[in-house]
Amino acid sequence: MPTRLTILAVTASFALLASLVSTHADDKAAAAVASQDNGKYADKEGNPTFKIQEDGTVDWYTYSGYRRFNSECNVCHGADGAGSSFAPALANSLKTMTYADFLSIVAEGRKNLSAGNEKVMPAFGENKNVYCYMDDLYVYLRARAVGDLPRGRPAKKEDKPEAAKEAETSCMGG
Questions:
Q1: pLDDT attached to residue 24
Q2: How many CB atoms lie within 10 A of CB 120?
Q3: Each residue of 103-112: b (16+ CB within 10 Å) or e?
Q4: How confident is the model at residue 119 (pLDDT cuts 50, 70, 90)?
Q5: Which residue, among 61, 66, 37, 38, has the nearest Cα to 51 in the 3D structure?
Q6: Can you give the pLDDT at residue 1?
Q7: What is the DSSP track for 53-90?
Q8: Cβ neighbours around 85 below 10 Å, total
Q9: Whole-prediction pTM value?
């Protein structure tokens, strides 16, 4: 009987450990648009996603994410999220990062101080130029991560939806 309890305990421990390890993998199928609300797109899980039309026109939020990324994030994370000696390539990181993890890391920051390779992501939870546009940043980087958005400024974009204008005014305090 003790052997059986030990096996059950070990099995339960492995099950718990497996549930804690992220198996999130983003790809074109997972990022596919399942719903739309006032120009904002979501995947089947309800996470923000992007829409790129056949002629290359991107949705407003992806374009806004590009602009915000280039004003706040590219200094460390490199052009188009391709990475640098200061910070990782977010175009790769988002392939395995959940939306919730992204929000948490951007808002609270992160420290990696292992093996003499000290990297610190500052917290942007109080920077309105970042937190008011977290979804925009996420969809832009998600589009880059799954390979649907090439490097550089999107050539065409949808018009800014009224809902985006209202959210921006509300968040920025204008």
A1: 62
A2: 13
A3: beebeeeeee
A4: confident
A5: 61
A6: 44
A7: -TTSEEPHHHHHHHHHHHHHTHHHH-GGG---SSS--H
A8: 7
A9: 0.81
Is the pLDDT confidence value at 15 over 50? no
Whether the CB-CB separation of 58 and 153 falls below 8 Å is answered with no
Measured CA to CA, the distance from residue 60 to residue 123 in angstroms comes to: 26
CATH 1.10.760.10 fits 24-172, yes or no: yes
Task: Determine contact, residues 157/60, Cβ cutoff 8 Å.
Answer: yes
> What's the average model confidence in pLDDT over 48-67?
95
Taking CA atoms, 171 is separated from 77, 126, 127, 133, 164, in Å, by 25, 11, 11, 9, 10
Q: Report the length, in residues, of the chain.
A: 174
Average pLDDT over residues 34-38: 93
Would you list the domain boundaries of the chain? 24-172
Amino acid symbol at 77: H
